[in-house]
Design goal:
Elements (H helix, E strand, L loop, with lengths): L19 E13 L3 E8 L2 E8 L5 H5 L6 E10 L14 E12 L16 H6 L1 H4 L3 H23 L3 E2 L17 E3 L7 E3 L5 H9 L4 E10 L10 E11 L3 H19 L3 E2 L6 E3 H8 L12 E3 L12 H8 L3 E7 L7 H13 L6 E7 L3 E4 L8 H11 L6 E7 L1 H18 L7 E2 L1 E5 L4 E3 L6 E3 L26 E6 L2 E8 L4 H10 L4 H7 L1 H7 L6 E4 L3 H8 L30 H6 L9
Parallel strand pairs: 3-5, 6-9, 11-18, 12-19
Antiparallel strand pairs: 1-2, 1-4, 2-3, 4-5, 7-8, 9-10, 10-24, 13-14, 14-17, 15-16, 15-17, 19-22, 20-21, 22-23, 23-24
Helix pairs in contact: 5-14, 13-14
């Protein structure tokens, strides 16, 4: 028997009654009933109720003991009385009568309680993360994370993938997010970069003749924090396959995600085979390339309706004539909703920076009419065409937004989610996965007005490779894809461009000369010149998968030691200053602002 325990705190049952036991753990809670003191002892596995009566010489000492003190107790297992059985814990039918105890680790005054899941400030929680992690919900989240990662590893092995580790110290990439840089002591004036992803290395693994690779890869990006993204670092399931097309990757990822979500959640999957939605279609129907398909509302482009002579809503007509678009959302059978429902959504849209959401409800007396602030501007014939285009019916309401396309997509997407929430249309007990496909290879940078890669510069363009028209780069689609669940992007992936000559041509469209490509991607270009197989891959985010399974809104709740919003580790006080000797070794000087 261990010096510290014969059982853990989640192990004892009725079958152990009358046994002597040795338990160690944290004092989770105390309840003093005068002659009896109840102590809930907690460890990683659960809680056991321990009791001591006033006749025991240790009673007064335990009565004063600080919560979260680590103690060892010796005692006897007894049945609880029927009225005191606790069905909320596994050990709820028994309790342990304390004979002796020993303090293993004393505890200072706590900055926050552990037995409560009450919200505390980010600063307190992250500074004392080791205490925060003792709390039930987040402790369970981290255990869930471990189990999910173990399961994914097992599934990948079953699917014939081999796990390899790629370098952490590598070269800086001109594409993507901002790099974290590490100065080299042995190469003065030069820097390593921490990998934003193992992108180039995993392609090199395929060129090396390995067929299926994966790793649970740490990735580093110097980006601002968001609810679904940790600042600094995150983990992804990185995978790559040789001799594959897009559909081959979809089959592997769908099987993996379906198995994972079915094992670790009681929620239903809306689709066992994920729908494939072209990027351009997604922007029109949902206003985003990260649609939540649990939401049944569909957006329609009805710009052409406002070109009709029998539509006299001049505000929208003038905007349309300057290049704006009009899109709308139909809500079914909302004719009996109070005026406040519509006005609140219009007010909300203005708070988001839009000009508001116009609306009306379709009615019919002798002819079809529209009731609402802008209903009088539509003829009966115009309403019929609108109903035909949007599949709206009598008693339905329609919300309209008119803006330049980018601004329009933003507000109409937010409105779609807001309206669905107000109407209670989203089934929270579903996971709705989908693929977003057919991304454009290039886009126009709105700041510089120059052409740039829209997604991943190493992607294969669609179509016959010898017939791609590089004079119309914005028309070129790529074999790029995202997998999305409940409005959260889990991953981006692509079939890779493994043909060096084609890569030079595509990079030239984005303003790179051949020598720039050779300089920035020398390892990749060189390797592809020595017989590269067609290959592709994807990298679902581990943090986001666990966040969905744990039903958390913030990725911090499934990350063991996250940084704060300013990319600071408050517990370890990082980033920190370094000594003059360290700076000299690295051939660095710090230039201080006056």
């Amino acid at each position: 028997m261990s010096r510290y325990r014969s059982h853990n705190c989640g192990e004892l049952r009725k079958k152990d009654v009358n046994k002597k036991t040795l338990l160690s753990g944290w004092v989770n809670k105390k309840r003093d009933h005068g002659n009896l003191l109840f102590i809930d002892l907690r460890d990683n596995y659960g809680i056991t109720q321990c009791i001591i009566d006033k006749e025991n010489i240790n009673f007064s000492k335990l009565e004063k003991i600080q919560l979260e003190t680590v103690i060892k107790i010796e005692g006897k297992v007894v049945n609880r009385s029927n009225e005191t059985i606790n069905k909320d814990i596994e050990t709820g039918e028994i309790e342990v009568i304390i004979n002796k105890y020993e303090i293993l680790g004393s505890c200072k005054e706590l900055p926050m309680p552990v037995f409560s899941d009450q919200e505390y400030s980010e600063e307190i929680r992250l500074k004392y993360r080791f205490i925060d992690l003792r709390r039930k919900k987040i402790h369970e989240n981290i255990i869930l994370r471990s189990k999910v990662i173990s399961f994914i590893r097992s599934e990948m092995n079953k699917l014939g993938f081999l796990e390899f580790q790629t370098p952490i110290l590598t070269s800086s990439s001109p594409e993507g997010a901002r790099d974290f840089l590490v100065p080299s002591r042995l190469n003065p004036g030069k820097f390593y970069a921490l990998p934003q992803a193992p992108q180039q290395f995993k392609q090199l693994i395929m060129v090396s003749g390995f067929d299926k690779y994966f790793q649970i890869a740490p990735c580093f990006r110097d980006e601002d924090a968001r609810a679904d993204r940790s600042p600094g670092e995150f983990y992804q399931l990185d995978l790559e396959m040789s001799f594959v097309e897009q559909e081959d990757i979809f089959k592997v990822v769908e099987k993996l995600l379906v198995n994972t979500f079915e094992k670790f959640s009681n929620k239903k999957l809306m689709f066992s085979e994920f729908p494939k939605i072209p990027y351009a279609e997604s922007l029109i129907k949902y206003g985003t390339d990260k649609p939540d398909l649990r939401n049944p509302l569909i957006i329609n482009d009805i710009t052409e309706i406002f070109l009709r002579k029998d539509v006299s809503f001049e505000i929208f007509k003038k905007l349309v004539n300057t290049g704006a678009k009009v899109r709308c959302i139909v809500t079914k059978n909302t004719k009996n909703k109070p005026r406040s429902f519509f006005d609140n959504i219009d007010k909300w849209a203005k708070e988001q920076g839009a000009s508001g959401l116009a609306y009306f409800t379709i009615e019919k007396d002798k002819e079809i009419t529209a009731k609402g602030p802008i209903g009088k501007f539509f003829s009966s014939e115009a309403l019929k065409e609108l109903m035909k285009k949007t599949k709206a019916e009598i008693g339905d309401s329609i919300f309209f937004a008119c803006e330049k396309e980018k601004e329009l997509e933003k507000i109409i997407s937010l409105a779609r989610n807001r309206i669905a929430k107000d109407l209670n249309l989203i089934n929270e007990n579903l996971f709705a996965f989908c693929w977003i496909v057919d991304y454009p290879m290039f886009q126009i940078n709105e700041q510089t007005n120059k052409i740039e890669f829209s997604h991943n510069p190493f992607s294969m363009p669609q179509g016959e490779l010898n017939k791609i028209d590089l004079t119309k780069p914005l028309d070129i689609l790529a074999y790029q894809y995202d997998v999305v669940c409940n409005g959260i992007e889990l991953s981006s992936g692509a079939i890779r461009n493994h043909i060096p000559d084609l890569m030079y041509k595509l990079f030239s469209v984005a303003g790179y000369e051949k020598k720039n490509v050779d300089e920035k991607f020398s390892g990749m270009i060189n390797a592809l010149s020595y017989g590269a197989p067609p290959h592709g891959g994807i990298a679902p985010g581990i943090d986001r998968i666990v966040m969905l399974l744990a039903e958390e809104k913030n990725i911090r709740e499934v990350t063991m030691f996250p940084m704060n919003q300013n990319a600071q580790d408050l517990m370890m006080k990082a980033p920190s200053e370094i000594s003059e000797n360290q700076l000299k070794e690295l051939n660095l000087t710090i230039k201080k602002n006056k």
